[in-house]
Write a structure and sequence with these properties.
By secondary structure, the chain is of the alpha/beta class. The chain has a single domain (4-303, 363-458), classed as Amidase signature (AS) domain (Amidase signature (AS) enzymes, Alpha-Beta Complex), CATH 3.90.1300.10. It has helices at 9-17, 23-41, 49-64, 107-114, 159-166, 183-188, 223-233, 251-254, 276-291, 305-328, 340-344, 351-371, 404-408, 438-450, and strands spanning 44-47, 76-80, 118-123, 172-177, 192-195, 215-220, 263-267, 295-299, 377-381, 412-420, 426-433. Helix 4 links the parallel strand 2 and strand 3.
Amino acid sequence: MTSPALLPVHKLAAEIAARRLSPVDVVDEYLGRIERLDTKLHAFVSVNAANARLAAEAADKAIRSGHAVGPLHGVPIAIKDLVEIEGEVATGGTAAWRGRIARHTATLMQRLTAAGMINLGKTHTVEFAYGGWGTNQHLGTPWNPWDANTHRAPGGSSSGSGVAVAAGMAPCAIGTDTGGSVRIPAAWNGITGLKTTIGRVSTFGVLPLSPTLDTPGPITRDVEDAALLLTVLQGADPRDRRTLGLQDADPMTTLRRGVKGLRLGRPSDERGGIDAEVLAAYDRSVESLADLGADIVDLSLPARLADLGKINGVIMSAEAYAALSHLVDDNAQQLDADVRPRVRAGATISSRDYLAALAEREELKRSFNAAIENVDALLTPTAVTPAPPVASIDQNTTPAMLTRWVNFLDLCAVAVPNGFTADGLPISLQIVCRAYAEPLALRIGYAYQTAHDWHLRVPPMLG
């Protein structure tokens, strides 16, 4: 890696702290890459160039004078365009909100700023964050950088964040995950994504899709970076009651403890419909973790993961329609023709069916917790296929078959690269842990990554 823009956050931060790299030069490097690459890749809705340079100059002076505010001072980041910043446009991926000015700054944005991180700009999302493919009819679909010739799905809904990190236009980014929207972009872009548990990171100031299921999280080059970002993003916020009463996680203390003696579950009935290369990479990953000392346990789960995803969809649609009906029912609004019917589907869900889905969720959470009581984590592929060509996508389907259930059961998960197809497309492993066990998921992911170099590879078009 010859460019500092391709360094992971923890190495970039160390270089800045040691004054071997200046935040000014780092920000200029990223802004230059955005200018060169984003015409094709289309990851950014807007670029915060002038303010980013001012923040870099301030960070450089603070660090040189011994007044760094923390280990990430001067490190840039990209922000999904669901995250509000007071006085700035937050489109939520919809042309209908092109002029919508935020009245608040999201808590997570305040925390990133307080840690000295520098906002490079806002990244594209599927309209209203409702979709796993990463497409957007009116604001544009980001280009997956792993195929320079064919426009492939970037993964959604945090499409721009995934592409920005994979292409070295930002060292890390913020995404949100309601059914896989951090993990699928991470999987298809060959990077790392952390799906946090509800309440771990405040959603105040993040445009909602489904408040029961929405979870913000970091998209990064590697697991250590995700752990660092988690320490900044987490914490109690009186404006989000679900964050109250939780003890902050300490992922860095246990990150390097390895997997020896851990019991990792392998679902025994969840192999159907998965691409052969994805399945082969998954099997190799399980074997690798066994070689590192983990005990692999075959598990029969109390329900099919796809069935859990369908109930997750009921909750998502009902809550999305409650929030967005005024837009999707107004045919004069210029909305994505693929997203509008997803939201409108919530109109057909009765209050009885919605409450029944919530009750069934609680019952299934209890049965799954009992089923996985004797394992530390579950392992699955993140997506059933590598990134498909955009032209081949059936918008009536979802790529989130292996991710939605994690939100439905209120668990946490990390997606890490675990190989490539014969055509050079990234494949991903999903490590799922109990609610609020993010440090354990990150520990397992870190052990896997230190044994492989998948996360160090970059798209050939960047070479």
